[in-house]
Specification:
CBS domain-containing protein; 11 strands; CBS-domain; Lmo0553-like; alpha+beta; 29% helix; four-stranded mixed beta sheet; CBS_dom; single chain; 210 residues; Alpha-Beta Plaits; four-stranded antiparallel beta sheet; 6 helices; CBS_dom_sf
Length: 210
């Protein structure tokens, strides 16, 4: 999965120009309703991010020049990611940021938000389709997924996420099985998993998200 598959397109992104004054930038951010927006130059090249709180602090706490340009207040000049980058790369870089700007050869093409990242994990959990969500553990870390897939042959797995990666003692898998199951079907499933060496740590029914 590439960042370009998840980004909010440039057409929908509020920006300020690096030649805007502090008051102009603050006015744009206030109207946008966001706490931070990307900064671009006249050619739409990414120049960093500007925060509403930093503009306010500069103007009203530091008695800054209202007509000054944004040079001293722009942050994260190096914090952007190419649209061809992987989802994992984006996940590692977005941690401390409200969003990460996405570029193509330096030009802003959009932003990646935490909501988009969370959506990927919701999909991995099977939240969008609903079903029976299980957290399963096994003491056999190596080959666990293959063995689990064989055990669940015939079931439609809507989402799967592995935990405890790298552990040689225990592994957990969170997965969602499609459809409704009766109490008898759940007990049959539990017995099948336990016979294969798995333990159900948690079970809940997920409603389909519309």
């Amino acid at each position: 999965m590439r960042v370009r598959d998840l980004l909010v397109s440039r057409n929908y992104v509020t920006t300020v120009n690096d030649q805007d004054t502090v008051t102009e930038a603050l006015d744009k951010i206030r109207k946008s309703g966001f706490r931070s927006v990307p900064v671009v130059d006249a050619n739409d090249n990414y120049k960093g991010m500007i925060y509403k709180i930093h503009l306010i602090e500069y103007l009203y706490e530091q008695n800054g020049d209202a007509d000054a340009t944004l040079d001293m207040i722009v942050k994260h000049q190096e914090d952007s990611i190419e649209e061809t980058s992987s989802f994992l790369d984006a996940l590692l870089k977005i941690k401390a940021l409200p969003f990460i700007s996405v570029t193509d050869h330096g030009k802003l093409v959009g932003i990646l938000t935490h909501n988009k990242i969370e959506g990927v994990f919701q999909d991995a959990f099977g939240v969008n389709t609903g079903g029976l969500n299980l957290t399963i553990s096994s003491t056999e870390a190596r080959g666990m997924i293959e063995k689990l897939a064989r055990t669940l042959r015939g079931e439609n797995i809507e989402g799967m996420l592995t935990l405890d990666n790298g552990s040689v003692l225990v592994r957990r898998v969170v997965l969602t099985l499609e459809g409704e199951k009766s109490e008898d079907e759940i007990e049959t499933l539990r017995a099948k998993l336990e016979k294969a060496g798995f333990r159900i740590l948690q079970m809940e029914r997920l409603e389909k998200q519309i």
